[in-house]
Amino acid sequence: MDDMKEYLYETHMHTAEASACATGTAAEMVRAYADLGYSGIIVTDHFFNGNTSIPEHLPWEKRIELFCKGYENALEEGEKTGLHVFFGWEYAFDGTEFLTYGLDKEFLLRNPDMLGWSVEKYIKAVHDNGGFIVHAHPFREAYYIPKIRLYPQLVDGVEVINASHMKARFNERAKAFAEKHGLPQLSGSDSHHPDCIYGGGMAFDREIHTIFEFIEAVKSKTGYRLLPGVFG
């Protein structure tokens, strides 16, 4: 890919509309990525079992509407800047987190009981509806992660580069895990702030127009390279 144009895509990012830990609005994040030369982003805000900013007491439909504002606002800004914007989310089970791609708002609205599902039931439901599951930062050590849980037979891919990691061993262990099980490898910045995007993402040899094109490209394991980020 050295002699051809590359198209950079962010696979893991958050907005202030839906993620409590983010400071950048969707529009601010889109402009930041556009300024850095990215072709597209996947908005993966924390769902309600993660670090969400959506009030728990609201009716399910209202919660979903608010949750999707990060993506919808990013999509609107992306249309102005020419940046492709795709929808996803980061789903959590007591600190174990999964990036979920290929589903939509309607899936969320149809499943108001999903917070009570087991890991296995959640992943099966995603797959049954045509979605794609990536284990995010599987070896991260943090206060909110009581223990490392791995699901090599259930996930579709592994985030082997999380550019926000300052400790190389987290990414190194993730890469070894993906290689051992023959799983597709992904890279993402895990960005939350427009002034702190530490690289990361994936550089494709072609423009990706939909989340489904992205998924098929990742499944093929060809036509892209992983961006390392500034820490390694």
Task: Describe it.
By secondary structure, the protein is of the alpha/beta class. The chain has one domain (about 5-225): Metal-dependent hydrolases (TIM Barrel), CATH 3.20.20.140. It contains seven helices and nine strands, in the order βαβααββααββαββαβ. It has helices at about 25-35, 60-65, 70-80, 105-110, 120-130, 170-180, 210-220, and strands spanning about 5-15, 40-45, 85-95, 95-100, 130-135, 155-160, 185-190, 200-205, 225. The two termini are about 20 Å apart.
Provide a concise account of the structure shown.
The protein is 31% helix and 22% strand. The chain is built from seven helices and nine strands.
Task: Give the tags.
single chain, 232 residues, alpha/beta, TIM Barrel, nine-stranded mixed beta sheet, 9 strands
